[in-house]
Amino acid sequence: MQPKPTIPVSNLKMKNKFFIALALLTLPMITFSQRTLRIEIEGLRNSCGQMQLELKNEKEKQIKVVTKSISNNICIIFIEDIKSGKYGFIFFHDENNNEKLDVNGLGIPKEGFGYSNNPKNYFGPPSFNKTIFELTDSKIVKCKITYF
Question: Is 89 helix (H, G, I), strand (E, B) or coil?
Answer without folding.
Answer: strand
